[in-house]
Amino acid sequence: MLLYLTNYLAQFESGFNVFNYLTMRAILGALTALILSFVIGPRMIAKLSLNQVGQPVREDGPVTHLPKAGTPTMGGALILTAIAVSTVLWADLENHFVWVVLFVTLSFGVIGYVDDYKKLVLQDPAGISAKQKLFWQSAAAITAAIALYVTATDEVSTSLLIPYFKDLSIPLGMFQVVVTYFFIVGFSNAVNLTDGLDGLAIMPTVLVGGALGVFAYLTGNVNFSGYLGIPYVAGTGEILVFCAALAGAGLGFLWFNTYPAQVFMGDIGALALGASLGVVAVIVRQEIVLAIMGGVFVVETLSVIIQVASYKMTGRRVFRMAPLHHHFELKGWAEPKVIVRFWIITVILVLVGFASLKIR
After folding, report:
1. Would you call 352 helix, strand, or coil by DSSP?
2. Euclidean distance between CA atoms 268 and 101, whole angstroms
């Protein structure tokens, strides 16, 4: 929105041309989201506390979690507000990729909001049933997948890039819709499963989101993409603004979510952030790289699948508790130790993902 204003003002003062630079708008998007989080955060936490929108604690969980009962949740609304406002202010709103990403992020946020509202406000422990949640997630994901497929302009936009190999990709055609659906819904639920400790999910989301922003910038630049040997997809560079806003909003939320947390993000935040990572990875043609950089989310999800499958087939549990972060807690690791070590692992995985730009 402000891009149009600055373009108009540039007719009278050439200094406003600086806002045409994508990197400048990304920086401003991140700062805007961060400042909004700091300004809105205390008021939102106070309102959630006043309305007694508190987090329930699993009775079979680690005993160290019992003091967390009643901590305000649904703080993901803070993240989504900061992301949406910053993106609308600083992104090029004529870019259809921006609207697809915002649609996915906000629609999954609405699904999470309804689930949180039913659980926390209406005191319905079940919230949205698993079938209903999957139905609405699928509806939003398929809508976005079809929109990306029909607007694809070349074969690159519907091919699966194999990282670390030069010019190796798999043309998917219409199957690209299935891949897009899988990554959006899959990562939405993966981040939701990971969001079990103070700051555990949000920092990896910031790191992975920021890294995807770099991929978006490079993929949308014909010179950089040609030099690095990655597919050029026109228009993807604008997603950098969204990713920067996500990083700024995430860091702003972490200010209040760091151990011991003043607020939790709830499903409204976790479902939306995971879905946004999935759709951005699809747009910039880095689905496999997302699976690498978001390895913490992947492993947390696999731990739940393995635990459930093992118990149903053998009656035995592989882990002391799933998702995996609870297993380490029950082994005696202090919560901050689990959190920081998972952050360190994510940093390593993001660097491995970045290595795909040069190892080809």
Report:
1. helix
2. 16
Q: Each residue of 110-119: b (16+ CB within 10 Å) or e?
A: ebbbbbbbbb
Which 3 state secondary structure label does DSSP give 174? helix
Q: Quick: pLDDT tens for 2-50.
A: 888 888 888 888 888 888 899 999 999 999 999 999 999 999 999 888 7
Spatial CA neighbour of 247 closest among 305, 195, 204, 303: 204
Amino acid at position 205, single letter: T
Chain-centroid distance of CA 218 in Å reads 20
Q: Where are the alpha helices (DSSP H) in 236-323?
A: 239-257, 266-283, 287-293, 295-314
pLDDT digits (tens, 9 = 90+) for 122-157: 877 778 889 999 999 999 999 999 999 999 988 888
Bond before 260 cis per omega within 30 degrees? yes
Decide if 289 contacts 269 (C-beta within 8 A).
no
Q: Where are the domains of the chain?
A: 22-287
Q: CA-CA distance, 90 to 97, in Å (whole number)?
A: 14
CA–CA separation, 46 and 20 (whole Å): 38
d(CA 113, CA 44): 15
Note the pTM of the prediction, 2 decimals.
Answer: 0.94
Q: Please spell the DSSP secondary structure of 109-177, one letter per residue.
A: HHHHHHHHIIIIIS--TT-S-HHHHHHHHHHHHHHHHHHHHHT--SGGGGEEE-TTSTT-EEE-GGGHH
The alpha carbon torsion through 156, 299, 73, 82 (nearest 10 deg) reads: -30
Query: Hey, what amino acid is at 250?
Result: G
